[in-house]
Request: fold
Amino acid sequence: MARSRGPAIELRNVAYRLPNGRSLLNSLSLTISAGDTLILLGRSGSGKTTSLKLINRLLEPSEGEILVEGRPQSEWDLISLRRSIGYVIQDAGLFPHWSVERNVALVPRLGGWSDERVRDRVRQMLALVGLDAAEFAHRLPHELSGGQRQRVGVARALAADPPILLMDEPFGALDPITRAELQREFRGLAARLGKTIAFVTHDVREALLLGTRIALLAAGGLAGVYSPEEFLHASEPEARAFVDSLGGDVPCAPPNSGGGQV
Amino acid sequence: MNFFQFLVQQRVEILQRTLEHLWLVAAAMGAAVLIGLPLGIVLVRRRRLRRWVLGAANVIQTIPSLALFGFLIPVPILGGIGASTAIVALALYALLPILQNTYTGIAGVDPAVLESARAMGMTPRQTLWQVELPLSMGVILAGVRVATVITIGVATIAAAIGAGGLGVFIFRGVAVASNAVILAGAIPAALLAITADLLLGLLERRLTPHSAARE
Reply:
């Protein structure tokens, strides 16, 4: 899975305004290198979710340009762009009328894979996220716990092997124990799969634990990009505020700095 | 002669009128679903249109049925004496619950689910057929069920413009002041309505996605 460490995603002077003129994002420039797990960290309303949704064009930038794998979004077919970007949101957003199997199979099926290949892939993906296919494949989302739903959400996002993964507070709605468990597994997974990941959170512990880079957003702009190590010692006031909120309780070990360099 | 002997004696005509009645209802419901379902879907996408269309359907609903049948008689093509006019009027009545429920059902699909569908690269058409319609099927069918029961009832009045159906007995019974004749139309009509309600209710429960039913 060798990948060049070029930019996988590049935002160039991107602004986003609501139809009513309110600005959510002003002139954001940000590069995410292939294989990195970039955390978009910020308070509520800082523009982090907006930035994420601009990447797979759930939102259209009002100004500026976004390059995905070196190509401007405008050159991408919208549907194939989205199918090569996995997407995981807080409550997983699973289709409630579909079984776990069918949910995970979605993107491969849309891509026209053969039934057999889809079935194999689903099994493989469920195993990857730690769910026993025999037990879970036929369950409906409401028959799962929050943590299990989130695992299925990750499996669905990874099913078609997209090079890029967008995650919007995927573990935000989970209890602390389940969250810690999923975070731990996610670290391992991210390091092993070598995907380019953009991960939105307002939880600074999560950012330090999972990120290879941390992009700090404040009031619709970029306050700085740091490695987790740098972030802890950054002098930027917003970064300080986040670090101070830890109260000295710094999560162990700057996370897998080598993640994705396979 | 008691009432039951009367029914037995009239069985051929009762059967014939019941079939006529069913035809009126089926044709009207078919037309109402064919128009109401797509229109309801369009209303979700075009909110501006929504007020006008639902408003118009509401107004139609308030016209007394006998008056609506009467209004349609002089209308060219759609109108005139007979079953086709009745079917047009019945379809107009059935439209509102179908429109309303299609709109409500689809507009009520969880936005997070729709965002996922978009983000996964589903086209709008795929999202409609695979996500929005299945998830709102229960609500849409509830509308169809209400519309069917209304139509079965209103269709008895269609006899007034020569459309046939079980209303023929009712009007005849009123004219000759015979309860037995009225009941020969009213009882089968009521039974049709109850049966349709039960069957569509069953279908509704079967097609309502599990989770949606529980939430």
